[in-house]
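[job 4471] stage=fold_predict status=RUNNING
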Amino acid sequence: MAWDEDFARWFRRGWSWPGFNFENIEKMFDDMFREAFEAMPKELYREKKLPDGSSVRHIGPFVYGYAMSMDPDGRPVIREFGNVKPSRRLTPSGVSKPSLDVREEREPLVDIMSDADLIRVIAEVPGVEKKDILLNCSEKMLTISVDSEKRKYYKDVDLPADVDPTSAKARYTNGVLEVTMTKAKKQKSERIKIE
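[job 4471] inference complete, writing structure tokens
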């Protein structure tokens, strides 16, 4: 008996993993695509009619990436960006399964640099105009928000130290946003004698 005959006989025998067989694979794919379309923001799904009467579907953009660097102590730091985030969802039977959360806003790639007096936040927000970028700063957080017709970005950046929000200055060149803030002056505590 040849190898291909053995394989065909083995395949017909109904080999399967628990809860999976080759006969229901098409249904599984249909269910996965239906779930993905239901979870997708409607802004990322467009249908366009062509002159010949047919239609074309445009889906996306879907962006996911990560950057890895080392912190001052030599530990790895992984920063994700994009509009797709891995997550877990419960099935109707209560089983947790891997899933993706898709948002309309992209999370920009952000680097934070800190020295003795300044904190610099550098964010990649390509494809937008300077006037579309909204920045809000508090002592502990910087919020980057863009809501334009072409692109949408959103990111809350936790700052590594308290800053003076009134000192914030921003510059945007070739898709790169740089925000510089002065660290807040620590007030000297008064020394008292305890009886």
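[job 4471] summary: The radius of gyration is 26 Å.
[job 4471] exit 0
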